[in-house]
Automatic annotation (TrEMBL):
Protein name: tRNA (guanine-N(1)-)-methyltransferase
Keyword Cytoplasm: yes
Localization: Cytoplasm
Subunit record text: Homodimer.
Domain (tRNA methyltransferase TRMD/TRM10-type) ranges: 1-220
Residues that hold S-adenosyl-L-methionine according to the record: G108, I128, G129, D130, Y131, V132, L133
Family membership: Belongs to the RNA methyltransferase TrmD family.
EC category name: transferase
Methyltransferase is among the record's keywords: yes
Enzyme nomenclature, EC number: 2.1.1.228
């Protein structure tokens, strides 16, 4: 997979791209990440200008962005613009993006990007939440890491990704490691039993229970199996008692 980042702050990525999942994915050749600076497509390095109609804040100009995008755009490139007007990034969207071969990530700055950009390209607008950032760089890291960790060969064990929270629409079950008893707080006995079927059911129940308690709105989009419905009924009965 190819990620092309369009940003006026390429130095922002020195840390995030040199550690963790994104470093491993690049070293294994699973992903390639290039950074394109719109300033390189100007004669004076200026990529912003005053907004028509007045008001505080500068606006990113179209021409440098147009040239930057066209320098790396392929026929089937997915062009993502990070914007509060976009769809909120979810795990379902991440799984959709995994199927892409070439993704262009536009990182806006200042007051925003000239609105006419979406008349020049087909853009997928994405938001990572209802809060304000100074630019799209942080959002691009979030999206790249979320997508990259689902690509085959990146994580040490693919089950690690498949068991993650939200991967199947639910929050994941609690996890524990050694020691089995820490300051009189013990690991649930079932996890020490060695009975994989019992452990799997316990984890599924805790997953449903945790989602119901902390993120109940997620349950609206989950397709439950018959076993899941039995577990959900157990959870609801436990809650009443």
């Amino acid at each position: 997979m190819q990620f092309n980042i369009i940003s006026i702050f390429p130095e922002y990525y020195k840390g995030p791209l040199s550690c963790g999942t994104l470093r491993i994915a690049q070293e294994k050749g699973v992903v390639q990440i290039d950074i394109i600076n719109p300033r390189d497509f100007t004669s004076d390095g200026i990529v912003d200008d005053y907004q028509f109609g007045g008001g505080a804040g500068m606006v990113m100009k179209l021409e440098p962005l147009l040239k930057a995008i066209n320098s790396i755009k392929k026929e089937k490139s997915l062009i993502i613009n990070f914007s509060p007007t976009g769809r909120v990034l979810t795990q379902d969207l991440v799984k959709k993006f995994v199927k892409e071969d070439n993704i262009i990530l536009i990182c806006g700055r200042y007051k925003g990007i000239d609105e006419r950009l979406d008349r020049l390209f087909t853009l997928e607008e994405i938001s990572i939440g209802d809060y304000v950032l100074s630019g799209g760089e942080s959002a691009s890291i979030v999206l790249m890491e979320a997508v990259t960790r689902l690509l085959p060969g990146v994580l040490g064990h693919i089950d690690s990704a498949e068991d993650d929270s939200l991967q199947n629409g639910l929050l994941s079950a609690p996890v524990y490691t050694r020691p089995a008893n820490f300051r009189n707080h013990s690991v649930p006995e079932v996890l020490l039993s060695g009975n994989h079927q019992t452990i799997a059911r316990w984890r599924r129940k805790r997953s449903i229970e945790r989602t119901l308690k902390k993120r109940p709105e997620l349950l609206d989009n989950v397709i439950f199996s018959r076993d899941d419905l039995e577990i959900l009924l157990e959870v609801l009965n436990d809650k009443k008692s």
